[in-house]
Structure formats: C-alpha cells, structure tokens
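Open question from group meeting: does this chain pack into something compact, or does most of it stay loose? Before anyone orders reagents, we agreed to write out a predicted structure and look at it together. Recording both the input and the output here so the notebook holds the full record.
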Amino acid sequence: MVDEGSWYVRIAWPHDGNPIESTNFVIYSDAASVEARNEVATVAEEVWAELVDELAIEPGMLRYPAGRDKIDIYAYHDYDPQDWGGWAYYGGLLVWSPDHDRRQTGNNRLSPVVKHELVHVIQWLITGGESRPVDTWFIEGLPLALADDTVAIRGLDQLDRLTAEYGTTSPISIKSYSQITSPEAGEHFHYPMFHAAVEYLMDDDGQGRSPAVMTHMLIDVAEGASFKAAFEDRMGLGLDDFENEFFSLMGLYLPQYRNPVFAPVPFALLSALVMVLVVGAVAVGHRRWRLAAASGSIDQAGPGRAARIGFYSEITIASAIVIVFFLGVLFALGTEDALYNVGYARLRLFAYSILASYLLGSIVLLLWAVHQWTRHSRSAFLVAPLIIAGTGATILVFITGSAII
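Structure tokens returned:
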C-alpha cells in the first residue's frame, strides 16, 4: 500500500499502487476491482462531458494544481464514512467504489454524486484553489442544482414546513460552512435552500441565467473581482436584495403545492373516493345477500343476532383499517420530501405500486368476506384478521423493498 496521494493531507487513506487512467482522470483505490475502477472512470468521463457542455468550459479556463493535467479520483472500497459519500477538493475527489459493500442501493447512485463533486472540482479549477472568496450557499447550490442529487424544494408547502422547523434564516446569508449549525440542519434545511436559490437563478421563471453565466461569474472571481461584484454583474440582481427578499421571491416562484394531489381539496376528494370504494364494496356484497334472502335462495333468517353483530363489527373494523392505512400512507408518501429526489424514482414507483395493490387486494378481500357471509360460512369472520395480516405484510414489504432498492 502506498501512503500518498493528492487527497492524503485530508484523508490519510493509502492506495494499492495500481491506478488506472482515462482521458481526464486517474482512478486510485485501496481495494476496488479493476472492473469497479473502470466503471468509476466511465461514469466520470460521461459526467465530465455533460458538465463541459452545460458549463461551457473551454480550454484554458481550468487551472490544475502544479504538475498535473488530470483529476484524481480515489474510489474507496474498505472504508465506510458515515456522514458523507463523496468529497471534493482542489484537483480531485473521493467517492465510493461501485463494489463497496455498503453502497449498493439505488439511493446511492454513483453518477449524481460524481457529478456533484465534479462541479466542486470545476469551481476550484476555475478559481485556482479553494481559498477564493465564493459564498458557501453558491459553492454548494450550483452542484446541487446541476446534479439534482438532493431534495429540491418544489412547492411552498415544503418551504413552509422547513421554515417552521428551522426558522427563516435566508440561505444567501450563509457565507461560510461555519454558519451551518449542524449536519442535520445542513442536510434537511440549508442544502435544499441552497439548491432552491441557484435553481431560481437558472430557471426561466426566475432570473433565467444559464450555467455558462455561472462559469463566467467564477472566472470574474478568479480574475480578482469580489463574489458580490461578480454576482451582481452577471445576475442582474443585488446580492443584498437577494438575501433580504429571498422568501418573497420564493413565494412568487414556487407553486403553492409541490404535488397538487396533496392540496387540501384534491386530497379530500381522493379520500372520499377511497371511502366510497371500500364502503361500496361492502354495501354491494350486503345487497346481494339481502336479494338472495328475499328470493328464498338462501335461508332468510341466517345466523343469529349475535353472529350478525359480530360480523358487522368485523367488517366495519376491517374497512376502517383499510381506509386509514391507505390514506395515511398515501399522505405520508406525498409529503415525504426525499421521495421526490430524482434518485428515488424507482423507490417512489415501488411504494405507490404496493399501496395500490394493497387497496385492490383489500377490496377483493372485503367482497369475499361478504360473499362468504351470504353463504353462512364462518370463514367470513376471518376478514378482520386477514386485513390486519395483509396490512402488516404490506408494511414489511415497504421496509424490505425500500432497503433493497
């Protein structure tokens, strides 16, 4: 093992002395397979091509560290940092190897993390080092917006939840990392706010500035301009005004609800529809029993009063469980910000598919129970235990599936 590398002053991780090179990168690792290193190189080159195009990078814009003309990537295999997956520095980055035991889920996709970290690397290659005075909100907001690898604020409902929990400190006031009060606040409040700020600057419904404009703003800083002067010149917006009016601007920019299904009126209508479906299924089955009894095709007297009360109680409890569980999970999924990260698309589809299957299966089970009741079968009394078991199984599928995906 070799105790050296461009990252070594920050993370004293040795490499095995067998780096591989691609056009723009040198891939180091402690124990990653050759296939994993090649995958990192392939992903990095693909992302690099995207960023060169998006940011309009031209030859001569990038200032590599002395003696280097490629970016170092350390793909760690035998380490497990708990509070980060990727880490950029001047001229390189650290990221997990694709064959890392703890980084194999869909929520840890390699491409957006590499893209996020490479935006950082490009920022510092343009400015010639990390010491250039660029505000933290922009340093983090640009890669978040370009890589879309964190929870983006898509509606005022989400913004209101964040400010209710964390306060109304303008993200544009965050000039240095020391102002981020905790890792938890950084992840759940500051970073989504930084994302929203830069997304607003680039969106046609906001300031409409292209990523290429962001590149030229960094070039201005590299050439000696202050961040404030470069920002105001390129953005056409006063930095102090952006800080002071941030939430007012977001109020005009963001829709009221990220997902209209979970606005009060649509959700109320959807709730009513689900209740009609569940109660309607029971009512249809009960009507069939009454018609059969009236025609004499079954014993009209049927089970005794105690049995009837018992079954009606069970079918009511089972229906209530279905309605409450379905609507509760539906609302939780709709307001779970993390699910609307681009990287969670598979998990989101899985969750809604399982929930729809639960509703359909429950309605079928309720109809079956009423049918068994019309036949005076004691199996009808299994409806509540079966619904409870099905609900528990659905919860288990959610947990297991989420972990796998």
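Observations to bring back to the group:
The chain has two domains: 20-253, 260-404.
The mean pLDDT is 86.
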